[in-house]
Amino acid sequence: MSSVTPQEIKQEFLKSKIGIAGITILAILVLTSIVAIITIPVETFQEWNNPGNWISYPKVAIPVWVNLFMAEKIPEHRILETPSIQTNSRGGISLVSHQFGMNFDYDDFPNDFIYEFTSEYSGSPLLQMSVIRPDGIKLELLSTSLPFSDSKIIHSERIFSTDGAIRKNLSLQSEIFGFNIHRLSAEDVVFSKIQTNEPLKGDYIFLIDLYGVNSENQIPESKLIIGGKAFGVMGTDELRRDLAIGLLWGTPLALFIGLVVAIASVIMGLFYGVYAGFKGKKTDEAMMRFNDVIYALPALPFLIILSVTISNSIFLMVGFLMIFGWVGIAKVARSMSLQIKTRGYVDAATMMGQKNSKIILKHILPQLLPYAFASIAISVPAAITTEAGLSFLGLGDPSFPTWGQILHDANTFGAAARGLWWWIMPPGVMIAVTGLAFVFIGNALDAIVNPKLKR
Amino acid sequence: MTLKRYVATRLATMFGVLMITLLITIALVGSNMDTILKQGIVFQVRSEITENPAIAESFSSVQGFENFIQSQINQRIKVLGLDEPWYSPQRIGLTMYKILLLDFGHATFLTSDSGSSDVKDIIFEKLPRTILLFTTATIIISVIGIFLGALSGSKVGSIIDRITSSFAIISSSFPVWWIGMLMIFLFAFVYQIFPARATPDIPSSDPGYIWALLYHMALPLITIVMIGFGSWAYLVRNFMVGIMQEDFIMAKKTIGINQKKIIYIHALKNAAPPIVTILALSLSGSLGGAIITEAVFDWPGMGRLYFEAITVMDLPVIIGATYILTVFFLVSILIADLLYGYFDPRVRTG
User: Fold this and answer.
1) Which of A294, A380, A393 best tests the B interface by mutation, with the highest count of B CBs <10 A?
2) Neighbours of A252 (CB within 10 A)
3) Where residue A401 sits, what CATH number does that domain have?
4) Predicted ipTM?
5) Which end of chain A is less crowded, N or C, counting CB atoms within 10 A of the terminal residue's CB?
């Protein structure tokens, strides 16, 4: 214990392999947090629990990269937002035409397709939707007029592939296909080969034409969604949320919870223990009895009751975790300060009439710093897993989705039973990796502080 | 300080802690409890009156009828002592006295498997199952841990030591419940070896119930042991490393005593006090950790009861379960303390 200078610690630490590994993982996590904070707007993240925000995403979609390992490619979910726009007006009739091109290269039909638009018009323009397939065949999908309006209005609508009109239009063109299409859904027909009902690969162009007598007609927002079964780097969950966003944002949150709780409880424990040990006698006795009381409180039941009755705000949760965090450190700090107290220089300082506070701050605390750093590193994983555990029970702060909450949702929707591994694996791995980084650092520091274990 | 005095101070501290825990729990849930109780009374009075139409007919005006109901409600609240706030000394005293005598009252929503809503019945039905699962797990963990730890502690730097140490470090940062989810995913759905829910689906009166329970226990047991033994082995290893460097071991080595004998008899004996302490502590610690683990595996024990009680805010059950958990926790801390004092006399003299 003690009498290790900071330089020595640094040198020893750089020699330890697991210490370096821990620091490297931590650096990557910090980098991830920075990337998350910069690239993902806070608004998206706060909309995590708002289903409306995720409506254009697919349900329980597998991560896209899975296709790399699959012989049969799973259709990707595509959100096409940038059509090529052409406007024409001839003979008093204006035409706004939006074209969405997409390359379809999968071995299964898409789930559905949805055209989502907002248009600005007056009168009653005609909206036509058609698709040009890779084999050159043009299928008419829909021809409908938008609701009549005298003055200029803004109209938003979603056209689903399940629309009865689309189905009817397709059945009118059924002679193109060499099989009976009447009982098939629209996407299974549109993306099918002519002879057999198998997916046809190639470039598709979806055409949206808006005809009107008024040349001011516009479609300011136009979005075509080809519903697939694979999406994004991390897939999506039952509530259509992009798991990549949740996982990314979980990183700064976990680091925040872990570090704040660990640092604060170590500082509290250190001062408490050192003061008790230094004062000794009655003060020590009383302070250690109080310490015993806190130590004997069952932590998890209490944390649960606290979060249910007081508040589940993440900041209060951090405070609650601190209440139970400082106790063990205080015990060790006390016994260490009891030893340091008996050393000559402390006696000398007392005799010279230095104030107690100065002796503690200048002569005792610095001796405990290596131990303090090691305990901070070791306390972080416990704080993170406890918070994750509470969130997993559904007691987390809903406005700050953490990894534990993703796992809570996964458990609620029976992800394990349904084989949705991309919903269960990544959050747990992230919790474990974050914990591991700090355990590595802590172990490396511990080996320096307690050289006995190193041998 | 004599042993007697040591035990007495410990006991007094423990009792104090128990009282403080109870007080905090009551303080936290007290106001909610009052609201719920009062709502219950209102509901009870109204339903009694609707069951008896003669009462309603005897009133000419709606106003008078409402006044009558209100006075009835107030009367009952007064009889039950609910007109005083929960923090009034009499009420807290009464509540704590009742709880000390294990009289937790009746659960608001939850019932035991046999249908009783008495909190005591519910708890004593669930408690043995939690003890069964977690005590078994802790015993297996400690046996594996002690042997593995002693083995790797005596051969520092060997392959076994490295594997044990790295396994301990890695497994300690995985949440048990997450591993539980993965185990369910793997062994209940991908390979259908074990049931996914740990609650047996036959009634507890069936003679085959014990076997069903044991079969359903397998998956949670394997998970807890898998995650737990690493850190145990690591702890024992660290004690052993310390002891193996002591002079008396060196001396025994030079005399030429069998290496195995040194490790398992002389060294392990000296490492006993901390190990026994940790054993006692981890037994009780596992009960607290049971809340999440049982929720994942759906094991019908105290942990799941606690979780269910929290989700529906069944306050009598919450208070009762907290009390029982605290008692267990304190008793094991006490045992750990006493054992430590017994093994290591230095502690007693303080």
Assistant:
1) A393
2) 18
3) 1.10.3720.10
4) 0.77
5) C
